[in-house]
Amino acid sequence: MSGAGRGPGGFPHGDPGEGPPGGSHVVGPRGGPTGGLGGDLGEARPLGLLARILPFSAVDGPGNRAVFFLQGCDFDCAYCHNPETRAPCSGCGACLPACPAGALSPAGGGSGAGALAFSRGAPGEAAAGRGDPRGGAQGAPPAWDRGRCRDCGACAAACPHGSSPRARLLSAEDALADIERFRPFLRGITVSGGECTLQPAFLASLLEAARARGLPGLVDTNGGRPLAAFPRVLRAAEGFMLDVKAWNPAEHLALAGADNGPVLENLRLLSGSGALFEVRTVLALRAGASAAGEGRGVGAASEDDPAAWAFDLEETVRETAAVLRAARSRARYRLIRYRPFGVRPDRAAALREPGEALAARLAALAREAGAAEVLVS
Amino acid sequence: MDPVLDLIRDKTLTYRQKLSALARAGEDRAAPLSIPPAVQALREAGVVCDLHEGPAPYRPRYVLPDYAAYLERGSAFLRVEPPRDLLEAVFALLALYRHVPSITGYPVWLGDLDGLLEPFVLRDPAALGLGGELAPAAEQALRLFLEQIDRDNPDSFCHADLGPASTAVGRAVLRHQAKAGRAVPNLSLRYDPGLTPDSFAEAAAACALDAAKPSFANHRLFQAEFEALGLAPYAIASCYNGLPVGGGSCTLVRLNLAALAARALGPAAGPVDEAALAAFLSGPLAEAVQATLSYIDERVRFLVEESGFFESSFLAAEGLVSLGRFTAMFGLVGLAECANALAGEGARGSAGRFGRGGPADALGLRVLAEIDRLVAAHRIPGLSAAGGRCLLHAQVGIDTDRGVSPGVRVPIGEEPPLHEHLLCSAPFQAPFVAGSGDVFAFEPTARANPGQIVDAVKGFFASGGRYFSCYAADSDLVRVTGYLVKRSEVERLRQGEAVANGATALGMGAMDNLGVLDRARR
Lengths: 377, 522
Description:
Low-confidence stretches of chain A: 1-13, 21-43, 109-137, 290-301
Oligomer: heterodimer
Strand order of the largest sheet of chain B: 3-4-5-6-13-12
Number of strands of chain B: 15
Helix content of chain A: 25-40%
Helix content of chain B: 40-55%
Mean pLDDT of chain B: 93
Largest interface: A-B, 16 and 19 residues
């Protein structure tokens, strides 16, 4: 599992996979990089690369939840609405001039401090692929001054690699310390991404630490890696939210740049075990088809024409719901109408938002095919 | 122009509204209270205000009859026999509501509807249907009861309570209110995480998004406080006023801290130092608090000793209220403006302003602690409830207030994100035994996850918060400050039509002056 990642995105993750704390990918209790070099390890903890921590969300599972977005994804979905979370930072520095607030400075010489210091202070070790899930073969990210940051997103917009200089390397304890103030308001946490299963040791550690604080964790995953390989994650999670982006493997490959074999394997595993909380499909149309059907009164009809669909919507919805029925899963099936917000402009140009009528028709199909609860959003 | 004739000729007032206004015009001709010149000067400066209570108090402002005793015993005065079933019980209640005095002429408290009516459901095998919900005939009786309350009492300060337990009546009230689109009754769910099931709390939250009610009251907090004062049981009346059942509050006089700060400090001239703060607390603030207290004392004296209310009202004669359970309320308003003035924070957008956990908040807490200390030390002659103590109340303002934030709230337009807002405001709600609350507008999409509201309430109450109200930003019913109005009725009033609910006019003023529709969406 170590070394370069899988999938067309080529996400090079350094997380060695599950297993007991220790090994080559840990930090000491003070958060300093130990990189398995010996010394006083104490109770060693895996680090995670986090794109963002949202202390309070009402749209990532039931109730109020803190959401941890892990950096890095092995899918390359056409409709990805947070594309800056796909790749690790290459250290190219393209974002430096884009920042209007002076919050970014070249690696090593900047004002980055605190939680960042340990991850940025030893670029040599990061480059060697030890102690840093960003893996090797890249320079150190710019230093980011959180105090100056205006959260405008200009850095991510300027990044040619689908990354952000603001990702932070944290232990589970440090990540949870960020939301400690808000614990009374939270029903649990949700770990999302990026793709959180690319950092399985950290994911398991975060879920376990959160649960110990009374915060059960949902895992929001693209399902690209067979979850059966991560028993600690399966044990520690309260439930899973899984995307079925397309049923047909060729369509899935075209839409997400990855094979859906593991996704469907995970769908069966989770729905069968009762751990599936929600399954989602983003409903999208092909932009080209819209141009053909733009005549008066034709638009509505064209939406029902499978030629207008970005993938076989009916097959995906029907087959996914059938898996839920076969497993007697009570998971809810959420159909999400594609929207262009946050999507890379070149990708957004190829997609179109489906109408309410089509979404309602597919929701009815999902119910008919056996989904216990169907939501459209 | 004769103001009485103006009232008579006013085409935007209903008959009942004219009657009430004309009665007030008559009361205005009396001046029986003895008001020292220094107190009168603060009244005229708008620092001390009795909120339209009138110059000659002839009934307590907030009356909370012991409806449970009434349902058990009936009323000889009203010739009401003890009801035997749900239908008789709701008719008996409607009969008594018409005789409960208040400032508006309508009762400010209608009872804990589920606690009062559930026994009639449980004792009648036909009242409960399958699944433990009300049978159709019982549901119809409850629906007609609730609709009659709205028709008889077109006043948004008529308040009923639910909870903390989930009951068939409570669930049916929520089902009805979610769809009824009626401003009356105002509703509170007395919420206790140990007694209120999540399913009931979520049904209440879902109802609140559509109907701007119920609000959530911190039951554990209120219960413990009223027990400690020897005044349990308590209820939530009017806007969000915590008061003893079988009694209430003789009066509510408020101190306008925004006006006081403007008068005492002048235009903002930088933050006060410790000496200047001490001078403010021991000088203008202490004087204004004492003036407010002495005015409360005088109003209570006249009501208790001279008005004859407690000697003449059948409510007192039949034991549905007793003088020993009447307190008085010390209201305050505009703490945000006062704290900003002390912190030297003039312009919006500064991190030091009130509601950001910074210097203005610290100063606000100092002011609040000093008021709490002074009020707690005072004893009202002639009142025995709580040993004669005045209870603090975060007053929501009146329609003519401008640039004065309700109670201890963060001004609209400056609200921090929800979680920060709740954490920052919880300690400010703590001292207000007689009520303090905040209102939150949610995005319509919150309807997909009402559990988020329950989680917010749990966290808020665990942090010491007292009272939480919410609605969805697209709802026709809007909680203005503490009371509800229908946006569609405000529009009709703007067009010059008479509307039944007198609070609609208040709501129109508050919408214009406080920017109620501009609340941050969560």
